[in-house]
């Protein structure tokens, strides 16, 4: 449920250059010769018990609760702390890339294609997770109403303040609430145990049971932990192990995007922690993002993050989004394939 630390101990980047690849429709021509890379995962991650790769033995079960099936999913964003407009735009562009585009352009590796795997999850009424997602409201708590250190409980107070402030409604039907904390805000367990988590609010604090997720910008506090592979620990950099270049030139926020994706995937398939998870312990469920942590492309698992593309500006990515954006987003567990899956800009190249 929560994205744990990735303690980096080993990262090597090997790359090979494609000799003849076609330019995919959404790629500018200067990317005719992108590179394919498949870096090693940090040892702690590849040997993690929660990292299962592809296996029929993964015991992902449905526990009879609801999934986010009402369409569209309405995301209410709480910007906690000071955010730069371009950072907000980047995160919003990612969220707005989830819904399928209205024009039926050739399906390449898009965020909308990535979300398709989530739509394979259903509840006991056979309702699928919705494929449509909108940003239904934004609330800026730039003065940090609950201070510059948040706990799991004070976070609910932040949501409570937001839903008492019209027009940020209590949306039982379609709502998911997203608290995004800025670089200078510290959070209970942030960097030490989690990079983000999702849960639901309590009626005694917020007045309703609402699914929410928190993700922090680790840029100043622990990018080598929560924005991996865009940052590596200094002892590794000294050994010549480079960090990968983020697709949108913002280590903290580009790193956050994959954590946001991870939490959204889990929140939509397990919003009240009684739907889709593996393991027998509901207080420590292993969810569909956890099962594929650290896997971004084909050849991932067994100690590798999987093959992803590096464009000619050196930016690493696997998905395209709206406004010509590129993102590097981890894969998720498919209930049909019983494996980690996702689209990859690279796979498109290989077919041609
Ligand atoms: C809904 O989920 C079922 C079961 O995984 C799947 O067969 C079906 O294609 C899904 N529908 C959509 C629209 O994704």
Automatic annotation (TrEMBL):
Keywords of this entry: Apoplast, Secreted, Signal
InterPro entries xrefs: EXORDIUM-like
CC annotations in GO: apoplast
A Pfam family matched in the record: Phi_1
Record localization: Secreted, Extracellular space, Apoplast
Signal peptide feature range: 1-22
Family, similarity comment: Belongs to the EXORDIUM family.
PANTHER family assigned: PROTEIN EXORDIUM-LIKE 5
The protein's name in its UniProt record: Protein EXORDIUM-like 5
Protein species of origin: Carnegiea gigantea
